């Protein structure tokens, strides 16, 4: 059984962590598959949005630390051979950074447990839709570990510094409704509606003006490090770029003709 499933439909690439018997713990094969799909989505113009989810009622229980994953006990956490944990975590960090920097919109559809490094994966996505039974935990402190998965950066930016410290220092569970209240997720839906809701949102993003969305994503992600003067200059440059796209011309024509635009990503 493949530890990760990849499905493509109408520009939306759906990646499903598929180890339900281990609550989709991420083994060497999982990281290798994510590495491959991120490369493909970044370079393929037909791939216009990415959706991450998990099989069997859970998103992921985090890294597989048992040594029993399909990569084998001698392959290390990420399947690249035994090496210092510093180098393992740099590789994981680079993968999650690539997800965060992907020039296309990303969604995490989270059900059940979202733990440790898998929480970092979810937070690296642009949008998060959660089921009403989703539970988040920055579990590292309970294992005597520091933070990883980019959560030292993403948590304080999404929930504020004090709440980030609360989650990181205690490692407690955060339920779906509280995650929504704290701004950790965009939407909470009944578990039976999660897949349909996330797919519909993914299809909307995949049908959008890809270049414009990529520029919007870059500007919003960089906004905290810019002055207002720098931000409006970046907006001017981004708008200049969008004026060169077929999607911009289609958007204006659709407005004139009072119809919905049909973007192609060009």
TrEMBL record:
InterPro entries: ClpP/crotonase-like_dom_sf, Enoyl-CoA_hydra/iso, Enoyl-CoA_hydra_C
One function term, GO molecular function aspect: isomerase activity
Keyword Isomerase (UniProt): yes
Entry-linked Gene3D superfamilies: 2-enoyl-CoA Hydratase, Chain A, domain 1, Lyase 2-enoyl-coa Hydratase, Chain A, domain 2
Statement: the UniProt record of this protein carries the keyword Isomerase: yes
Pfam families tied to this protein: ECH_1
Key words, A-Z: Isomerase
Family as reported in the entry's similarity comment: Belongs to the enoyl-CoA hydratase/isomerase family.
Name the UniProt record assigns to this protein: 2-(1,2-epoxy-1,2-dihydrophenyl)acetyl-CoA isomerase
Classification of source organism: Bacteria, Bacillati, Actinomycetota, Actinomycetes, Frankiales
């Amino acid at each position: 059984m493949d530890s990760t499933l990849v499905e493509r439909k109408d520009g939306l690439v759906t990646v499903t962590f598929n180890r339900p018997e281990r609550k989709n713990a991420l083994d060497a094969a999982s990281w290798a598959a994510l590495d491959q799909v991120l490369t493909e989505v970044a370079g393929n113009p037909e791939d216009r949005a990415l959706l991450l989810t998990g099989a069997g009622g859970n998103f992921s229980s985090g890294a597989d630390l048992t040594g029993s994953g399909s990569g084998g006990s001698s392959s290390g956490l990420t399947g690249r051979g035994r090496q210092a944990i510093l180098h393992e975590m740099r590789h994981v960090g680079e993968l999650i950074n690539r997800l965060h920097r992907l020039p296309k919109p990303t969604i995490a559809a989270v059900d059940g447990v979202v733990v440790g490094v898998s929480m970092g994966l979810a937070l690296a996505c642009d949008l998060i839709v959660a089921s009403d039974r989703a539970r988040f935990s920055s579990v590292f402190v309970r294992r005597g570990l520091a933070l990883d998965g980019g959560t030292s950066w993403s948590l304080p930016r999404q929930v504020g510094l004090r709440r980030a410290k609360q989650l990181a220092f205690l490692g407690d569970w955060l339920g779906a409704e509280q995650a929504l209240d704290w701004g950790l997720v965009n939407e909470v839906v009944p578990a039976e509606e999660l897949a349909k809701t996330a797919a519909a949102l993914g299809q909307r993003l995949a049908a959008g003006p890809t270049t414009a969305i990529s520029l919007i994503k870059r500007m919003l992600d960089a906004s905290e490090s810019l002055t207002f003067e720098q931000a409006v200059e970046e907006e001017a440059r981004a708008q200049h770029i969008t004026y060169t796209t077929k999607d911009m011309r289609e958007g204006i024509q659709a407005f004139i003709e009072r119809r919905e635009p049909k973007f192609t990503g060009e």
